[in-house]
Amino acid sequence: MLTGPIVRLRRLLIGEAERFPELAAEHFAFLVMGASLNRALFEATTPYAPEGIEKRAHAGIDTFLRAYR
Length: 69
Description:
Layout: H1 4-16, H2 22-42, H3 50-68
Helix pairs in contact: 1-2, 2-3
């Protein structure tokens, strides 16, 4: 949770937070990172493969854009 893809993803979200209202930014963060963060917290011994992280991030982005456009 403190290194690698999770940190990079958090930095991306922080960088984009000003572009969205507070609630939208919160939704975006959980859609993009929620599952990966939970897995890192609860199943630290079996991290996602980089492809899985990217797939979940894109799914979260797609969902967010459908909801907030």
